[in-house]
Specification:
single chain, 492 residues, alpha/beta, Rossmann fold, 2 domains, six-stranded parallel sheet, 18 strands, globular, binds 6-O-phosphono-beta-D-fructofuranose
Length: 492
């Protein structure tokens, strides 16, 4: 990167911003792994964060600042220049609740039950044309304004909501350096054949307008490269991770996202966490199993409860001795598939509790809320932590649990999570579809010797603590520098 490129403020773009505003003007931190990952960047570099206005409060703030960037202080620390972009309400709804979720999310997590869905009709095509495209277009205009007059600007784009954005920016600013990080898996080529070919081609051409595309794992990187070959017939160098398109080279890299261990531990020591802990310990049985997730279909919550059901049936000696605490944050409830999933979760919990419960023991404690401090209290005391996602980009909870837990708790981890590429050696690996295997692993975790628990927990902690989000960002900035200076691609 030239000197001017290194000193300029970076422009970050994502659907969700670092903060959201209520209509009374009060500020809350934006939710989700993406915001957590990027928040550190602002302490590192001058950043202007362009994001969609997520609700009325955000839209009011955007209007108050004439649609321009303004300075905000996040309640969890950090100052940002934020520019909130307001799109037409109906267009945003189509962008978020039809195309981004479920359409793209389900393709990338292999969630479509293809004999039943999706049906792509006028409704979906219009949602793409007049929703997804329009919101990407609104953001493109804002980004182009932000980089107006800046020499050699660098724009870092995030996630699956914004696949068309890079090309829209590139058309107006051919000199821009575009870096796009995808926080979710990249599925294999056949999963993408669900999309009508015109839509698919536009999406791939959109994202291939970037200079660098980053994923959490080498396996998603491999899938992406293969897709470019299979679906677009492009020339791909698999070893170097390069796609050649229209006389340009696009680098495709893997940057596994670490957690900020120091701040996670700070949160885990708050007074309110202690209060939750007191209550938890009062009710605690011999063993506690924990899961903490968004209530998303990809997280495989139902098979987790079915496995616990099976475990209790096959090991009656654990009756009244173990509680499964499930803290699930309702998510995307405007999308029918997500609403229905929540209902199925509640129904299954009622069945399992009815089948195995006793007058003073409820096997599953379901907590349908987003309360980080309550989750932290549970992290401290689990004996087994279940992360059995069907497919998942990284799954940061798999990293948070081990560094907060005080009991050398065992991690039961799906082989299809991004985190498994790093943590698999010290976790109990499960195939997320194999319910009997998960039931067996629950038993193995709860009967494991203290020595083995300690060995595994030490191993997990060591891996999680080895890198922090600063390293993640440094690796990406180093690649931006390399590519901008004309260096050749290198092996990951
Ligand atoms: O990358 C996946 C992601 O965008 C993460 O930020 C977070 O885990 C989740 O999806 C949040 O989804 P939403 O913004 O739809 O609530």
């Amino acid at each position: 990167m030239s000197e001017s490129r290194q000193q300029q403020p970076l422009v970050l773009v994502s659907n969700r911003g670092p903060v959201t505003f209520d209509t009374d003007g009060s500020i809350q931190r934006g939710t989700g792994g993406l915001v957590t990952a990027l928040s550190g960047l602002a302490t590192y570099r001058e950043v202007t964060w362009v994001a969609n206005a997520m609700g009325r409060g955000d839209a009011e703030q955007a209007r108050k600042h004439d649609g321009k960037a303004f300075r905000v202080q996040s309640p969890v620390g950090g100052d940002y220049d934020v520019r909130l972009v307001v799109s037409d309400e109906e267009a945003y709804e189509s962008f978020y609740s039809i195309i981004s979720n479920p359409m793209l999310w389900f393709i990338q997590h292999n969630l479509w039950d293809l004999s039943n869905a999706p049906d792509i009709r006028r409704h979906e095509v219009d949602a793409y044309e007049y929703g997804y495209k329009l919101v990407n277009e609104d953001l493109a205009r804002a980004v182009v304004e932000e980089i107006d007059g800046v020499d050699e600007p660098v724009v870092m784009i995030h996630d699956y909501h914004l696949y068309l954005l890079p090309q829209m920016i590139r058309e107006r600013r051919p000199d821009v350096f575009l870096h796009h990080f995808v926080h979710i898996p990249w599925s294999q080529s056949d999963a993408w054949r669900v999309l009508p070919s015109k839509m698919r081609e536009e999406i791939y051409r959109g994202i291939l307008a970037n200079d660098i595309i980053g994923f959490h794992t080498r396996s998603y990187r491999r899938n992406f490269l293969q897709c470019c070959e299979d679906l677009l017939g492009l020339e791909v160098d698999h070893a170097q991770g390069v796609v050649r398109i229209d006389d340009r080279e696009v680098w495709v890299r893997a940057y596994p996202l670490p957690i900020d261990a120091a701040s996670t531990r700070t949160v885990s020591r708050r007074v309110r966490v202690r209060q939750f802990e007191d209550e938890l310990l009062r009710r605690r049985r011999d063993f506690m199993i924990l899961r903490v997730d968004r209530a998303d279909l990809s997280k495989n919550v139902l098979r987790g409860f079915s496995a616990f059901d099976l475990f209790l049936e096959q090991h009656p000696e654990f009756s009244e001795r173990v509680t499964f605490v499930a803290q699930l944050m309702p998510s995307r409830t405007d999308v029918p598939e997500y609403r229905e999933y929540l209902e199925r979760i509640e129904a299954l919990v009622a069945v399992v509790n009815h089948r195995h419960g006793t007058p003073d023991w409820m096997p599953i404690q379901l907590k349908l809320r987003d309360d980080l401090e309550e989750a932290m209290a549970s992290y401290r005391h689990y004996d087994a932590h279940i992360v059995n996602a069907m497919f998942d980009g990284m799954n940061l909870v798999a990293k948070e649990g081990p560094i907060v837990n005080e009991r050398n708790g065992v991690s039961i981890l799906s082989e299809n999570t991004g985190a498994h590429e790093e943590l698999g050696e010290f976790a109990l690996t499960v195939n997320p579809f194999d319910v009997q295997e998960l039931a067996d692993m629950i038993h193995r975790a709860l009967t494991m010797s203290n020595e083995e628990r300690r060995r595994r927990a030490d191993g997990l902690r060591e891996i999680v603590l080895a890198r922090n989000p600063g390293d993640w960002i440094d690796d990406q900035l180093a690649d931006i520098r390399r590519k901008a200076s004309g260096a050749a691609a290198h092996d990951d």
